[in-house]
Amino acid sequence: MPSKFSLAQLLPFESHFAQVAGHKMHYLDEGRGPVVVLLHGNPTWCFYYRNLIRELRQYFRVIAPDHIGCGLSDHPQDAHFRAIDRVGHLAELLRQLGIERCSLVMHDWGGPIGTGFAVRNVGMIEKLVYLNTTLTETESLPLVIKTAATPVIGKWITKSSKRFIKLTTNWGVARKLPRQIKEGYYFPYHGAKRRTALWDFVADIPFDSSHPSYSEMILMADKLPQLGHVPVQIVWGLQDPCFHREMLNKVAQHFPQASIREIPDASHLVLEDAPQQCIETIRTFLLSPVPVDRSKLGETPSQNPFVSAVREWATAQPSQDAVIEPQFFPDTVRYTHFNYRELVNLVHKYARGLADLGLRSGDRVLMLVPAGVDFLALSYAVMDRGGIPIFLDPGMGRENLLRCIADANPQAFIGSPKAHLLRYLKSSVFAGLKFSVCVSDWLTLGTARTSTLKKYSAQPLAPVALPETALVAFTSGGTGAPKGVPFTHEMVKSQLGIFKNVFGLGSPQKDLPLLPIFSLFGVAAGVCSVFPPMDTAKPLSLNPEKIVKVIQDIGISVSFGSPTLWHKIAEYCVRTRTQLQSLRRIFMAGAAVPVSTLQRVKEIAPAAEAYTPYGATEALPVTLISSEEILSTQPFPAKSGEQGTIVGKAVPGVQIRIAIVSDEVKGGGEDIVQFLGTGQIGEILVAGANVASSYLNRSDATRASKIMYEGQLWHRMGDVGYLDPNGNLYFCGRKMHMVACRERVYCSEPVERIFNQHEKVRRSALVALKRGTELAPALVVEPHPQFWPSSADKKEELRSELLHLAKSTDLTAAIEKIYFHPSFPVDARHNAKIFRDRLGDWVNTGKIDGA
Question: Quick check: pTM over 0.85?
Answer without folding.
Answer: no
